[in-house]
Amino acid sequence: MRCPTLSELPPPPPGKTGWPWTEESSPCEPSVTDGREWPRISIVTPSFNQGQFIEATLRSVLLQGYPNLEYLVLDGRSTDNSVEVINKYSPWLTYWASEPDSGQSDAINRGLKRASGTFATWINSDDMLCRSALRNHALRIGFEKKTVYVGNCYYLDESGNTISSHCGRVHSLEDLVRIRTVWRAGAQIIQPEVLFPLELALEVGGLNTGNYYSMDFELWGEFFLAGATFEYTNVDFGMFRTHAAQKTQDGLGRTQSLVDAAERLVARAHFLSHETKNEILADLGAYAKAYPTQYWRSSGRLARIGLPRGIVLRLRSLAAAFQKRARSWPAKRANGSGACL
Q1: What is the model's pTM?
Q2: DSSP for residue 37
């Protein structure tokens, strides 16, 4: 599929400017510099009730300017305006459907099985690709079998403003499963910054549909177990949006999921010594046991200073009720029904 130009796509909503609304990627030459065709890249977007974000996602992929792109969108029968937005961009999609699925991993797996690219990734319906990400990767880095490429990722807030940048530093399965000292110490791999061989993903069976929180982490582990090399490219590649509704905000659930996945991976890592396995498993167990207390103390000032949980929850409930009531006061005063306190 040839990527559309900015002028070919529907106009952006009023007030939307910059990437990917009024800017497009640098155009690619008809062939790579040595005369070969551009390798096909397959992008899958799983979608469910992310109507406020998905148009930016779609445009960030379609405006890559990449000459050999395959873009598949799998919607889980959204009940908001997602399908309306997807349909608006349907002339430029390789495939899309809105039908029930068993979750995000199932949708991604179905998309990967339909894909035909040499390399692939998925971009969630609240995330984006960076401008010229695919072109820059193809020209600067290239594509090697059994190699998983990790670029740079930018954290965005709900409005799309850049918060910070990130680049992972996981080089082995042992790095990956050391959640406390490596993964959670800033070296983690953020999913939108990854580009992987499609054949490799299908070879390992795709995503674990029973893993709700950390299926990407587990997939990276499957890649390591299959003998893949991870190469860090320093190419600006993905954009990860943070907002209150995303499941990654569930710190307790995600942490337990990471520990469970790491334990499964360690058990299958034949190249790790018995002593190393036991040491890693002991550290994972200790981390899982200590994390709930750490998480609670990070939830606010009162918890951090050590007040009993029951008192903190009661004070928070009272504060929330007061704030809700305070928000109604201007309307009541406007209607003449306010009362002085």
Answers
A1: 0.87
A2: P
